[in-house]
Design brief:
This protein is an alpha/beta fold. It has a single domain, classed as Rossmann fold. It contains 6 helices and 5 strands. It has a 5-stranded parallel β-sheet with strand order 2-1-3-4-5, sandwiched between helices. α1 packs across α6. The longest helix is centred in the last third of the chain and has 21 residues. The protein starts with a strand and ends with a helix.
Amino acid sequence: MLKAIGIVGSPRKGGNTEILVSHCLKAIAEEGLATELVHLAGLNISGCNGCGYCFAHPGECSIVDDLQPVFQKMLAADVIIVGSPVYYSSAPALLRAFLERAGFMGRGKYTGKIGGPLVVARRAGQNFTFAELLFWFHIQQIINPGSIYWNVAFGREKGEVTKDEEGMRIAWEFGKNCARLAKKVRQ
């Protein structure tokens, strides 16, 4: 069975990013894929220290923390969705640390997977954050389907993102497109 993982890159649980990623995963599940929601909140994940260990030992890292189990789930998934809030026109440090290490460790291991980012902003910075994350997906050779608009939604207070009807529809259609494409690619 095809599997999709939704990684919530917010340092807080239960917020708008989680709501948006969960909504996207529901659309994916409706297409028959198994789904799993993973939170980075509460995990101890350090940024890359530039030691080069992963180049000599592909799939491994010299830093021992909570990254490895999530990395293994990414490798096992056919679809990878990464959700991020906007912090000063960027993804939060926790998510950036996770992606830089998962990227170095997984060089060449994501090729042909399907996925992309979802971004939630209070008011601005969403396009910078969306582009920042999209660059990561592209360099990992992950196939990125589109949606009806860029994968961004708006909301500040917990649950407010659900009032952004267009943003919720974007996440839904993105999930549908990811699932449909994964099924075609894996035929």
